[in-house]
Amino acid sequence: MQYVAEELVANGLTDILFVTGRNKSSIENHFDSDPELYRLLQTNNKKDLLQEVQFEDLKAHFFYTRQREQKGLGDAILCGENFAGDQPFAVALGDSILGIHARSQCLSRMMHLFEAHNADCVVAVEEVPPEEVSHYGVVHPAESAGDWMFVKDLIEKPPAALAPSNLAIAGRYVFSPLIFGLIRETTPGKHGEIQLTDAMRKLCQSGKRVLAVKLAAAEKRYDIGNFPSYFETFVEFALADPLHGAAFRDVLLKLLKQP
Ligand code: G1P
Question: 2-225 is classed in which CATH architecture?
Answer without folding.
Answer: Alpha-Beta Complex (3.90)
